[in-house]
Specification:
Blueprint lengths: L15 H27 L2 H5 L2 E9 L5 E3 L1 H14 E15 L6 E14 L2 E15 L5 E14 L4 H4 L22 H9 L4
Parallel strand pairs: 1-6
Antiparallel strand pairs: 1-2, 3-4, 4-5, 5-6
């Protein structure tokens, strides 16, 4: 803690209690993110439902997923599970921003991979989740919103070729553009100034 010359805490400095609370919140949110993948892979729908707020929103950049409310989110998962065989979701990097104005709100960006079968065919996917988290009345952090987009969703045997294409989302009958990075403003402005050969 930084003190002024009179021994008082400087403006803007957080107390030890506030810093510990932040660490606890970040840990709880990280566990929430991990539980999501485990519950999907285990098809533990009751536990999965417990990860979302009552007014949760789950959407995807391709528009295929667009559910509002916990019950609708779970119904959407039932539809997804009908097409999927065994799956393995694993998360990697994440950035969590705690809302300084609202201690019960946070946002996050999560990178994830998934292995699965879809309609009997092996698939691999690289996913980004843009999240909003809420601390609920029971003190638990839950997903308020998950917006996901795919870098790729393809047959693992075709991954090398798929990475050279822009239509890298091959989950459905017709390939579709990837959700990122080509759609990002930073990507577009970088290559506007430095065209690729």
């Amino acid at each position: 803690m930084v003190l002024d010359h009179d021994g008082r805490r400087m403006a803007g400095e957080r107390t030890l209690e506030e810093r510990v609370r932040e660490l606890e919140d970040r840990t709880a949110i990280s566990e929430l993110i991990a539980q999501y993948g485990f519950h999907i892979d285990d098809r533990d729908v009751d536990a999965l439902a417990g990860l979302f707020t009552n007014d949760a929103v789950m959407r995807s950049s391709d528009g295929v997923m667009n559910a509002r409310g916990r019950d609708a989110v779970i119904e959407q998962f039932h539809g997804r599970f009908a097409a999927l065989g065994p799956s393995n979701h694993f998360t990697h990097d994440r950035v969590v921003e705690l809302d300084r104005a609202d201690p019960d709100r946070a946002t996050g960006l999560v990178v994830s991979h998934a292995e699965m079968t879809r309609e009997g065919k092996a698939k691999v996917a690289c996913i980004r989740y843009h999240d909003e988290y809420r601390r609920c009345a029971d003190g638990q952090w839950r997903f308020r919103e998950r917006f996901l987009s795919f870098f790729y969703f393809t047959d693992p045997r075709e991954l090398g070729q798929t990475l050279e294409e822009t239509d890298r989302q091959k989950a459905y009958a017709e390939p579709a553009p990837a959700g990122w990075p080509e759609s990002l403003e930073t990507w577009k402005s970088y290559y506007a100034e430095r065209p690729r050969p």
